[in-house]
Design brief:
Strand content: 5-15%
Helix content: 40-55%
Distance between the termini: 40 Å
Length: 411
């Protein structure tokens, strides 16, 4: 448990720490982790306000996590709550006032809000104390709700949240809300770019890129954990990859509608033009301003490379788009990158993108059955895909499915 001095010192560093995180999903994980650490809470959740509802967006629970095997993650169903005074989170969002409840099972009948025991009964968890704080924008509007559950003493006994805890979390929430608003703006900018691409190519939807980004982060995290990489490195790369993966096909905005919207198969000339979206997308991130530019360029350029070297665009000079000397086939075309010549991020997004494309319905095709999709990935391990990444993908398939549900096409 942090001392009061440590809490104040951590709070002063929090602005810098949170502003280093750009992706919205990764940021919410950081916010919740830090909030729970501040007041030694066993669990917590973040809800994001959208119109007149709260979307249950991110959650953590140490007690339930300990029931899992090492490396497993908790998987929660997504749901929403109306912003009204009937639920605890809805009440806080509706009134803009925090609630500090000693025991949620003993809420007086006269209060407008109540606590649902449905989750506790299903998971065999006992919620007791709950501190629910509004996350407000600079103009006072509600961005979301931060809820932390079951404060603990040094012996892990559940206790109530103190007045000091409440004051500290209000300060924390004001800092977190600034970072959250910035990350939401960044996500909105990326999704506007995707919508621009969607006007050209109906396959590029906001749901599709959110799923690909979510899959990619989970595959990377498992890969990095198996190698015992430092957590700071993992956190940085998850943030970069999440956004870069969302922009993997941004270069399609420069491809002619005659090709992008062609209903049938491409002829050889059309396919050569189509393949240029990888180079055109990567070129958007030349003139490096940050590590994100490197990651986004890498993903855009290499997500159609194949493990056996049969992919594209291969070994090229990014500025000119011409083959690199010494890396051409007998016809003078760039040789495809092979194996670990393909950057890790590109290998990961290749797998995530194909899985989602096959799993999703489009105006020109039905979604494949999951069994057929998984059989294809398994068959293509070692040819199209990095076989280690395919093994990792199958080991986290339940998490992959939860991401599909969270970012469904009709969401």
């Amino acid at each position: 448990m942090l001392t009061e001095k440590e809490k104040m010192e951590t709070l002063s560093r929090l602005v810098i720490q949170l502003n280093r995180v750009s992706d919205l999903d990764i940021l919410m994980e950081h916010i919740l982790t830090q909030a729970r650490r501040f007041v030694n809470a066993d669990a917590g959740s973040i809800y994001i306000a959208e119109d007149k509802i709260l979307q249950f967006t991110y959650t953590q629970n140490d007690t339930l996590q300990k029931r899992l095997s090492k490396g497993e993650k908790l998987i929660y169903s997504t749901f929403s709550l109306p912003i009204n005074e009937k639920s605890i989170a809805g009440y806080v969002a509706s009134t803009g006032k925090p609630l500090n409840i000693d025991h949620v099972y003993e809420i007086e009948a006269s209060t407008p809000y109540n606590f649902s025991k449905e989750f506790d009964e299903a998971s065999r968890y006992a919620t007791r104390s709950a501190l629910t704080i509004p996350l407000k924008s600079a103009n006072g509007s509600i961005l979301g709700i931060l809820q932390i559950i079951n404060a603990q003493d040094d012996d892990k006994n559940v206790i109530s949240f103190s007045e000091k805890d409440e004051k500290m979390m209000l300060q924390f929430a004001s800092i977190a809300a600034v970072a959250l608003e910035r990350a939401q703006m960044m996500r909105a900018i990326i999704l506007r770019m995707i919508r621009m691409a969607e006007l050209r190519d109906p396959k590029e939807t906001g749901a599709h890129v959110n799923r690909v980004g979510g899959f990619a982060v989970e595959i990377y995290e498992k890969w990095a954990t198996l190698r015992n990489l430092p957590q700071r490195e993992i956190d940085l790369n998850r943030d970069l990859l999440r956004m870069a993966a969302m922009l993997h096909d941004v270069g399609k905005v420069a491809i002619s509608d005659l090709i992008l919207k062609k209903p049938g198969r491409f002829n050889s000339d059309e396919f050569e033009i189509m393949k240029q979206h990888t180079v055109l997308g990567a070129q958007l991130f030349l003139g490096r301003q940050s590590e994100f530019d490197d990651a986004a360029s890498q993903v855009a350029l290499t997500h159609h490379e194949k493990w056996d070297g049969s992919g594209y665009p291969g070994h090229i000079d990014l500025v000119s788009g011409l083959p690199l000397s010494g890396h051409t086939d007998p016809a003078g075309r760039p040789r495809g990158k092979k194996g670990t010549e393909i950057p890790l991020f590109g290998r990961i997004v290749a797998l995530a993108d194909v899985y989602d494309a096959l799993s999703s319905a489009r105006i020109y095709k039905e979604a494949w059955n999951e069994s057929d999709v998984l059989a294809t990935l398994e068959n293509d391990a070692g040819s199209h895909f990095d076989p280690e990444l395919v093994d990792i993908f199958f080991s986290i398939i339940d998490i992959i499915r939860s991401i599909q549900n969270r970012y469904a096409d009709d969401a």
